[in-house]
Design a protein that fits this description.
The complex is a heterodimer. By secondary structure, chain A is mostly beta strands. Chain A contains no helices and 13 strands. Helix content of chain A is about 0%, strand content about 50%. In chain B, strand 5 and strand 6 form a beta hairpin. Chain B has no helices and eleven strands. Chain B is mainly β. Classes of the chains: A mainly beta, B mainly beta.
Chain lengths: ~130, ~110
């Protein structure tokens, strides 16, 4: 059974830092890309960051670029999100999510079969 | 970044109704779109991937269609457990982007 367990959330002052972790189990972690997705209170889903299976490629939303860093430790089946220079608008539940299989079409275009597993989330509150 | 415009933002429907939700991308995204269901206090759940493929374990009353810029999620006969918020997500390129969500409420 696939399990994703986030930790590291909490209350932090504006300008502060937090490091989120996501412990993965039930699948071959090193074979799948991973994402972080957040949801501010009462708001919609907001994609934050993604990382390839090897960790060699990373991607960010414009709103967090330069402040957040995604990484992974495939030997420990763990995904991380280092969040610096936090702002009130970063207050949200942060979900760790597994990307499905990546496959290629006849012209070499990459596709995925969605974000197929999600953790239960960890709450980050940025407030003084 | 690609913008995903989802409509309607909310709808009221009765059990047994057919419901459709649409997502429009600001540029062509092939069929690289998924649909997700989220109930209050829960994590999102994948319903449809690659625009029209039903995720395992998802009831067949859910279906997806579309390609390029226009996509639709349909629920053929709404059940009590389907009252939730639905989101589209483009996975054509980075940064990924979600639609704003559609809240399906009981009439």
């Amino acid at each position: 059974e696939v399990q994703l367990l986030e930790s590291g959330g909490g209350l932090v002052q504006p300008g502060g830092s937090l490091r989120l972790s996501c412990a993965a189990s039930g699948f071959t972690f090193s074979s799948y890309a991973m994402n972080w997705v957040r949801q501010a209170p009462g708001k919609g889903l907001d994609w934050v960051s993604g990382i390839s299976d090897s960790g060699g490629s990373t991607y960010y939303a414009d709103s967090v670029k330069g402040r957040f860093t995604i990484s992974r430790d495939n030997s420990k089946n763990t995904l991380f999100l280092q969040m610096n220079s936090l702002r009130a608008e970063d207050t949200a539940i942060y979900y760790c999510a597994k990307v499905g299989i990546v496959y290629y079409d006849g012209s070499g275009g990459a596709h995925t079969n969605g974000v197929d597993y999600w953790g239960q989330g960890t709450l980050v509150t940025v407030s003084s | 970044a690609i913008q995903m415009t989802q409509s309607p933002s909310s709808l009221s429907a009765s059990v047994g109704d057919r419901v459709t939700i649409t997502c429009r991308a600001s540029q062509g995204i092939r069929n690289d779109l998924g649909w997700y269901q989220q109930k209050p206090g829960q994590a999102p759940k994948l319903l449809i991937y690659a625009a029209s493929n039903l995720q395992g374990g998802v009831p067949s009353r859910f279906s997806g269609s579309g390609s390029g810029t226009d996509f639709t999620l349909a629920i053929s006969s709404l059940q009590p457990e389907d009252f939730a918020t639905y989101y589209c997500l483009q996975d054509y390129n980075y940064p990924r982007t979600f639609g704003q969500g559609t809240k399906v409420e009981i009439k």
